[in-house]
Amino acid sequence: MKNSTIQRAVLCLSIMMVLAINYYLYARSNDLPNIQGVFLSPALKIAPFELVDHQGNRFTNSDLEGDWHLLAYGYTYCPDYCPNVLDKLHRVSKMLVEAGQFTNLQVIFYSIDPINDTAERMAEYTSYFNHDFIGLTSDVSLSEGASSFERSLGIVSAKSESGGFSHGVFIYLINADGELQAVFKPEAESGELAYFSKRQVFRDYMAIRTYFM
Questions:
Q1: C-alpha angle 148/154/155, rounded to 5°?
Q2: What local confidence, expressed as pLDDT, does residue 176 receive?
Q3: Which helix or strand (DSSP H or E) is residue 86 part of?
Q4: Which of 25, 29, 32, 144 would suit a FRET pair with 42, their CA atoms being 20 to 30 Å apart?
């Protein structure tokens, strides 16, 4: 067989392999849950951390294992976004109970203001929305504080001149292995406060849990 013929055959096979791989990746990507946000495949490990829950107990990576978690963050003196998102997550919890599926879900509210948001304050605040919600804050006396936890999730915040905080508006879905599985983004209109739809969060959570069945 002539060299030119062999070269053409190799080229054709190479093109076919590239097309086959691209088709496989495209088909696989289409199988992933279509959510308002980012689905992480594979899920991302969360760096070792040590926090304090609303009951004053130590809270580490192992406490995220076993159940799925939806985590929102902010601070208890937040005037608008934080109360709104926690109310939505309370409603999502009720929708899951009514649906009778994938109810092994806990909701966490993580504070970016540990100076004011003590465990006692977090207990009072989270129970206002739902007695089963978990409040998390940090303690500077612990060896593994909040920094690694915030870096793993991509939590960004800054203290404003008014004494409040500006911060991101995401909800994180952590799987039963304690890994970051998805990041839900809010639905927002230009120039308006970012907000989450309880139905969208419910649909996205159900889609992801169904994907792993």
A1: 85
A2: 98
A3: helix 81-99
A4: 144
Give pLDDT, residue 27.
46
Coil, helix or strand for 156? Answer: coil
Total domains present in the chain: 2
- Kindly state whether residues 103 and 158 are assigned to the same domain: yes
172, 71 contact by CB (below 8 A): yes
On whether both 52 and 25 belong to a single domain, the answer is no
The 10 Å CB-count burial string (b at 16+, else e) for 19-45 is eeeeeeeeeeeeeebebbbebeeebee
Q: Which residues pair with 5 in a beta bridge?
A: none
Range of the domain at 17: 1-31
Same structural domain, 159 and 207: yes
In one letter, which amino acid is 180?
A: L
Which residue in the block uniquely carries the two structure tokens 């203001």?
Answer: 113
Mean pLDDT by 10 residues, the chain (213 residues): 48 49 47 93 95 95 98 91 94 97 97 92 97 91 72 84 77 98 83 82 98 93
In whole angstroms, give the CA distance from residue 173 to residue 39. 9
Q: Torsions phi, psi of 137, nearest 5?
A: -140, 175
Distance CA 45, CA 202 (A): 24
Length of the chain: 213
Amino acid at 154: G
Token representation of residue 46: 């969360």
Same domain, 164 and 142: yes
The letter for the amino acid at 121 is R
pLDDT value of residue 30: 59
